[in-house]
Every structure is written in C-alpha cells, then in structure tokens.
Input
Amino acid sequence: MINPYVPYPVRIDDIQIATEDKSLKTFKFVFLNEGDEEKFAYKAGQFAELSIPGKGEIPIGIASSPVEKGFVMFTVFKAGVVTSHLHNMKVGDIMGIRGPLGNWYPWDILEGKNIFIIGGGFAFTTLRSSIVYMLDPANRDKFGTIDVVYGARTPGMLLYKDELIEWGKRDDINMHLTIDREAPDWDYHVGMGPNIAEKVGPKGDEKTFAIACGPPIMIKFTLPVLEKLGYSNDQIILSLENRMKCGIGMCGRCNIGKELVCKDGPVFTLAEINQTPREY
Amino acid sequence: MKVIKIDKTKWAEGLNKLRSDYQLIGPVKKDKYHDFQMLGKDQLPDVELLNTRMSPKSVVFPQSEVMLEYSLDETKEDHHIIKEVEKDASPRAVFGIRPCDAKALMLVKLNFDTSDYKDPYWIKAFEASTFIGMACDDPASTCFCTSTGCGPYNEEGLDVLMIDVGDHYLAKGITEKGEKLLKTAGWEDTSDDASLIESKKGEAEAKITSKVATENLKDKAILDLYEAPFWEDTAFSCLNCGTCTYVCPTCWCFDIQDETHGKKGIRMRNWDSCMFPLFTLHTTGHNPRETQIHRVRQRFMHKLKYFTDKYEKGIMCVGCGRCVRLCPVNIDIRTVCDKMNNYAASS
Output
C-alpha cells in the first residue's frame, strides 16, 4: 500500500527572488531518489504539498511545466509559518514534496481550442506552467490562438518577467501585459487586468476557452467581462484555493458542498462553481 | 453461517484463550465513564453496557496518531527526510461494539479507502481488527438507528454478532474472520436457535420509536438546502464546542501537526472539528466558514446531504444518539434532519 502522506525527499537547487518587494521567491527542487521525478509526473494546473519537517506542509501550485525535466519549480508568497520558514531556507537544504495533487486544466477538452488566459498578481504560477506546456514545439499545433492578459501593480511585481518579454516577441502567442499605474520605461498596457481583457480579449465562441487565475477581486471583475465577450459558464475555467492539510480528500476541511477543492479541484468551471456553496 | 451458544460461565475462559492470538479491546469503566480500551490481563469487557460515551472509532482512528517521523540532526545521513513510522498491525479483537458503531466504520471506510488514495493507518488498523458486536435489546430513548439504514441487530461491519439470552450468549459468525475467532476461543457448541434471533430482532426493532425522515433529501439541490431559511435558528444556541463531532462515530475530520523535541520529531494527526473557526481559516485571515451558522450548516449538510449525494449510501449518521445526549445546548440532529427533509418536500 502506497502511503500518500510520505513526501518525496528533495534538495533546494535554486532560489530566486521573484518580485521587487521580495515577498515572493521561486524555488527549484531536485529529487534525491532516482525514479521519484517520474513518479511525480504531473499536468499543468496541479499542486503539491511542500513539506518541511518540524514546520508542516503548504499546498502550492506547480509553476514548472510537465515539458521541463530535471527539476520542479514553485513560486511561494511569504505568508504563514511554513512559507516564512521556506523563505529563510538555503540552496542545498533538504525537505519534502508530496504530490502531484488535485486535478488539472482540462487539457483533453482544451486541445484544438483557442485559449484566453487572464492572470493577476502572484496567481500566475500554474498559468506559467500551462503556457510553457502549450508553447512546447511538441504541443503548439494542438492549440489555436493563445492570448494572455497578465496584470500586476507594478512592473517589478510581474512574475517570470524575462519569460514574459520573450513570449511577447513570438508570433504564436499574444501577450497583453498590464500594470495598475504608469511607470517609467513601461511599453505595455496600463490599467486593471479585467479592463484590458475587455479591450483585447478574443470573443467567446464554442472554440474558445478562458482560464482565469488571480486574487478574488480580479476574478470578481473578470467574470462580467468574460460574459460580455460571450463566454459560457462551462468555458470559463477557474482554480480555487482553500485551507488544506491532507491534499488527498480525507481530512475534511476544504470542501465546497460535496466537492473537495484538494481532490475534485482545484480546477473547476464557473458552471460547476455556481452549483456549490461559496465557501472558498 | 452457523450460530454458536456460549455459556456465560465459559465466557471468561474463552476470552483468555484469545489473549495469546489477539489484543483484546472492549468497553471498560475508566474514571466515571466507559470507553473502548485495550484490556489488561484478566480484565473482562463490559459487553452488556448499553454503549460508551465516546464511540469506538478510536480503535481504528486514534484521537492522536503518529504518522511520520524525521530527524533534524545534520550529522545523520537521513536528516530532514520524512519517513513512515512502524505500526503495530497485530490482530485485535474488539468486543461489545454495537451495530450502529460497526455500521459507522463502514461509512468512514468510504473516506479512507478510496480508488485514488488509501489511508494506510486507518486501513491497516481496520484490517487487523475482528469486530464482535453486541445486539441491542434495550435501546435508549435517543436511539434512532432503524431509520438511518441500520438497526439493533444490523450486521454491517461486524465479524460476529452476539445476542444476550440470559444465561448464555448466541454468537452468529458473519465473516471468516469471525468464525476463526470463535474457534480460537473454543466456543463451538452449535445452537439451533436461529429463529430466536429473528424474533428477538423484531422485538428490538419495535422498541426503537425515535425516527428521522430522510427520503426527500436526495432530490433537493444542494444550494436550495444550503440557502434554506432555518439555519440561523438552528445555529443560534450552538457554542461551537465540537462535542458532537468528537463523540460521533462517523466524524472523521483531522488535522496534521509536526512536533519536534530536540533534533527528533514526528508528524501526527489529531481529530479536528468543523465546529472550530481555525478548521478553515486561511493564512490571509479570510475564513470561508467564518460564522457559527456556516459551521453548523456544514456539519448537518455534510452528514445529511453532501455525503448522501456523493456516495449514494444513505446519510452519514447511524442513529447512535450520542450527539443528542451530549450537546450542551440540546441541538438535536433528528429535529434538524426532519426540518431539512420537510423543506426538501415543500419547496
């Protein structure tokens, strides 16, 4: 019997400060035991429990992409006991990763479709994973147009900025970066994400799906925009967060109605979410 | 399956024979109340007790349980690597479990033994156990098992069902595990009293007059019941003390915590409760079930609606009545269930 509570041992291989306010860091982990990376096979949209002995565990979306091999990557906001401790850890330190957990963006349905991604602030992690996955030469032909609206307060608060700029130069993805207020040397949009989405977003039709991930306030203003653009509720895909412990649907706290965010989610369509109590 | 007759004068002798092959567990009095405990040498279980204050769920799901261990000592090669702890999976025999509590184990099993994940701690303890149940002939006024898909002679979850017939017990072997235990104990006098069991069962069922109605719950949409007007009233007196969830045989929620002493530590789980605000509190301070109304509604919706919809095995309640007896403000799941069921029919 496989014990789902035992994490894979990993070593911190790289730590990068991810935002100008230093509240987010990006960690790359390598697996200590041969074969564990294969066992950890994941899809874009899933999460894992970062497991620090003596501190506890924290569920974090996987920011690396299934097409990137040799490491797994997470971008972590310093917020509570575990994440604060993680921010003080060093390259070479040993800890654990448990997963992959939860469902993923519905790649089987999304194949052959146009994809409209709306991201805000530091909820861009599994969206990065998804974009890298779709842009991979082996996968790019499987998707139609890819549009990305990504907003942050300032240029320095955008995650993975170098990659964003590189993607902006490509002709097989339309990047629409935005910041809240004018800033020097900023050549992209200025304004709130949902407003930009309304201006540049592709129209919703049966061949176009929207994936939105961001702070609650962004989601609140994005949903009416998507409706105006013509997206139906089962073509709007969201990823939820809730307090979790086990991550495998057993400990009982993360449910929204009969759905468990950790196991039945975190990815739900708006149509599904509309059938559940708003307990997230 | 055959029925064995156990003379009460041979009861202790049989139990003693079992002690070398099984750890014996049963209801014994500890301080003021009875509880399911590991029996000491020569100690006998109080199998004729109506029921324990706490349910026997702790036999397979201890209130606190060590799951994993680790060392933070960097001179050790495996420092910071989190490992499974060894568990005692030797056979245990659980005496005096009532049919409601045995059925509860089968409901809880749906949570811990799934096609996606197996909880090894719960499953190994469950599989190591032989459950010897005691049929109920004299129910309490708070017993309502017959309307929850259970009953005073219900066999689900049991390996042996015992029936008290005055100077002797009848023991009906239900599973191979149960038959093996009866044989090991040397209880082998077969009885032809199977018809007596049927008639006693009928009498016992007739004594249970308290009932809940659940037939309309299934067809009502979750959000309709969630938004029903009676939740504020239902929750008004609740103290969120969590007693109902701790005494409940079907409540399984748990928390996971690390405890480090010096350089060594353990990761353990502890029973948790949906009645506590911390249960769902986010690090940001946001709490999706921030009020007492949210939490009380969660408890009843989970037991009577979410579980019913998810597994299609009825409600997540076996009618043991513990929460009804022990709630300090007299919140009664039977009343709430009927309210929900009536609302589901009327609107």
